Amino acid sequence: MRAVGLWLATAVAVAVAVAIVPGVAVVGGSGGLLVLAAVLAFVNSFVRPVMRLFALPLTVLTLGLFHFVVNALALELASYLALGLFGSGVVLASFGSALVASLVISLVSSVSEAVLGLR
User: Which segments does the entry list as coiled coil (predicted)?
Assistant: First the structure.
């Protein structure tokens, strides 16, 4: 049940990012949000830890700021996979919009998970 709650919290966070961040658009309606949330959960579980490991020297060198770039790259990868595999998801106009969207998704999902008691 916790996994479903986390998935829905991520979908809500992606919807907020689509509404707030310019350059982020949904393909496939609300189903696209759910697909991207599922693919993003997969990327965050399996790919992002490897990305963080390889980016560790840069993260230490920039005092943790490079972690935001890793999050944006994970969002770009999840968007690419969702659109390529399922034909629905979120289109990101630029890396800047991916960076801002990843910040919004992180903040909103953290707050919603805390409110729902999932953390």
Answer: none
Question: Does this model's pTM top 0.90?
Answer: yes
Q: How far apart are CA 51 and CA 49, in angstroms?
A: 5
Alpha-carbon gap, residue 83 to 27, rounded angstroms:
8
* Residue-level pLDDT at 30: 84
Q: Is 100 helix (H, G, I), strand (E, B) or coil?
A: helix
Q: Specify which residues 27 forms β-bridges with.
A: 89
Q: What is the residue extent of each domain of the chain?
A: 2-116
Question: Given this model, what pLDDT does residue 29 score?
Answer: 85
- Kindly give, in sequence order, each residue whose CB lies less than 8 Å from that of residue 57, ignoring residues fewer than 6 positions away: none
